[in-house]
Specification:
Layout lengths: L4 H8 L4 H13 L5 H4 L3 H16 L7 H12 L3
């Protein structure tokens, strides 16, 4: 019997936060990166993350979780 995405999602929500984070990380690692992103080195990615983290800590305007989630969903849907 096949398990639906909805069932997996509901069960995943029952996991502790650290396990949900691990699951997300492992799922994202299974997706093929887009060409522009794949051309970046690990050092460039780390620099980008550090730059964004510093900006966030300095109070730079950021996307709300709802907007960020909507952008990710649109991107995954090919919009």
């Amino acid at each position: 019997m096949a398990i639906s995405t909805e069932q997996v999602f509901k069960e995943a929500l029952q996991l502790p936060e650290s396990e949900r984070a691990r699951l997300v990380t492992e799922l994202l690692a299974t997706l093929e990166p887009e060409l522009p992103a794949s051309s970046r080195s690990e050092r460039e990615w780390i620099a980008k993350v550090e730059r964004r983290a510093r900006a966030a800590l300095d109070g730079a305007p950021a996307l709300s979780w709802a907007e960020a989630r909507a952008r990710v969903q649109d991107r995954l849907a090919g919009k």
